[in-house]
Specification:
Layout lengths: L1 H21 L28 E4 L9 E5 L1 H13 L4 E5 L3 E4 L2 E4 L7 E5 L2 E4 L6 E6 L5 E4 L2 E3 L3 H9 L8 E6 L2 E6 L2 E3 L6 E4 L2 E6 L2 E3 L10 E4 L2 E11 L5 E3 L3 E11 L5 E6 L7 E14 L3 E8 L4 E17 L1 E9 L12 E16 L3 E6 L6 E13 L5 E5 L1 E6 L2 H4 L1 E3 L2
Parallel strand pairs: 1-3, 2-4, 3-6, 4-7, 5-8, 6-9, 7-10, 8-11, 9-12, 10-13, 11-14, 12-15, 13-16, 14-17, 15-18, 16-18, 17-19, 18-20, 19-21, 20-22, 21-23, 22-24, 23-25, 24-26, 25-27, 26-28, 27-29, 28-30, 29-31
Subcellular location: Secreted, Cell wall
Protein name: Polygalacturonase
Keywords: Cell wall, Cell wall biogenesis/degradation, Glycosidase, Hydrolase, Secreted, Signal
Length: 418
């Protein structure tokens, strides 16, 4: 009886320990960055018992890169979606021409593993999206594959100013939950490579994004109105933000990211249009590298009275290699010079931690906190920030910003407030 009781207690101990491991922590510990870690576990891909659906052998898709395979992919998705047990949708090696396509998860009965061994090639239809997943909540695993959007034609049109179409996002998820994406490559997107809107519990690992440094609006991953997003061990070489965080996002974990070329990792821009009451909270960017980027770690808001909050932001460990603006808060963001810069941003920025940030800046201003005169930044904490400027003494400028701690900053740069 005593042995049975011991085994029973051990079972419950292990069970509740596993539950605690899966819980998402939102605390920050000064002593050890590892105390604040992502706990969103990766779910397993398809099991041997999964029902298989092959887009070529079962649904007639041609992998020659010239024959439209859109209908075959849709039919395969409908079949997988109707399966009462977990299913696997296979895309064998080869090139597949896909026009604008929507994979609708409404009514899907079980999880789907989308295994892509080939390359998906975009057609010439310039809609707002190319490949879109909508209302998928029963579980989706996407593994492997290359998305080739062939965006150069549209970029050239925009550069020439010929009245071009808007262009399409390569891969978008709208109102989706419980998604895992691993080892996926997106190249030469017309606009955003990937976009998450109104999503929850999304895990992205081993993502690769490539586009020329002068390609317009080709953000790597854009996130809006989402919760519980994890992006790890991924590489971004593009013409805009590597990762952009738009309005109303909470509990984001971004770790082991390589960014360059690109515009860095940005929270914002916020405070435009219908952003009233916007909230971005509990965002961690950890152990990332920026090389040759326009910015490193950036928060940006428009100079408008629209109110909102950006708070509990943790930048933990970053290496800057020839970055123009390594650390920047810009509350006078105005890309087209049509803003009233004097009125001040209504977005409140508070509790932002910069810890273990090192490397070299291309410009003397290694830190620029340009906060709002009407809603000053508060609780900005700098710890072990050591950024060099090879051509002279680096400068750290702050306006309307309340610094909680500047542990090593006074030794490393000229700190001043104009």
């Amino acid at each position: 009886m005593k042995l049975n009781n011991m085994l029973t207690n051990l079972f419950y101990l292990l069970f509740f320990s596993s539950l605690l491991h899966l819980s998402f922590s939102s605390s920050f510990e000064d002593e050890d960055d590892d105390d604040y870690s992502s706990s969103l576990e990766l779910t397993a891909f398809s099991s041997p018992s999964s029902k298989k659906f092959d887009v070529v052998t079962q649904f007639g898709a041609k992998n020659d890169g010239n024959t439209d395979a859109t209908k075959a992919f849709l039919n395969a998705w409908v079949a997988a979606c109707a399966s009462p047990t977990p299913s696997q949708l296979n895309v064998p090696k080869g090139n597949y021409l896909l026009k604008s396509i929507i994979f609708d998860g409404t009514g899907c009965k079980s999880s789907i593993s989308f295994i892509i061994d080939g390359t998906l090639i975009a057609g010439n239809d310039y809609n707002q999206h190319w490949i879109s997943f909508r209302h998928v909540v029963s579980g989706l695993n996407i593994k492997g594959g290359v998305l080739d959007a062939k965006g150069k034609k549209l970029w050239d049109c925009k550069v020439a100013g010929r009245g071009c179409p808007t262009g399409a996002q390569s891969l978008s998820f709208d109102h989706c939950e419980n998604i895992r994406i691993e080892d996926l490559t997106s190249k030469d997107s017309q606009m955003f490579h990937m976009a998450l809107n109104y999503c929850q519990n999304i895990n992205m690992k081993g993502v690769t994004v490539t586009a020329p440094k002068d390609s317009p609006n080709t953000d790597g991953i854009h996130i809006e109105r989402s919760k519980g997003i994890t992006i790890t061990n991924s590489q971004f070489k593009t013409g805009d933000d590597c990762i952009s965080i738009g309005p109303d996002n909470q509990n984001l974990w971004i770790e082991s990211i390589y960014c360059g070329p690109g515009h860095g990792i940005s929270i914002g821009s916020l405070g435009r249009g219908t952003d009233e009451g916007v909230l971005v909270q509990n965002v961690t960017v950890k152990s990332s590298t920026f090389k040759g980027t326009g910015n490193g770690l950036r928060i940006k808001t428009f100079s408008t009275p629209i109110k909102g909050d950006v708070k509990d932001i943790y930048f933990l460990g970053a290496t800057m290699i020839n970055v123009q603006n390594p650390i920047i808060i810009d509350q006078n963001y105005c890309p087209h010079n049509n803003c009233n810069k004097g009125q001040g941003s209504g977005i409140k920025i508070s509790n932002v931690v910069y810890k273990n940030i090192q490397g070299a800046s291309l410009t003397p201003k290694i830190i620029n906190f340009d906060c709002s005169p009407t809603t000053p930044c508060s609780g900005l904490k700098l710890q072990n920030v050591k950024l060099d400027y090879q051509s002279g003494t680096p400068k750290c400028e702050y306006k309307n910003a309340r610094l909680m701690s500047t542990d090593s900053m006074r030794l490393n740069c000229q700190l001043y407030s104009p």
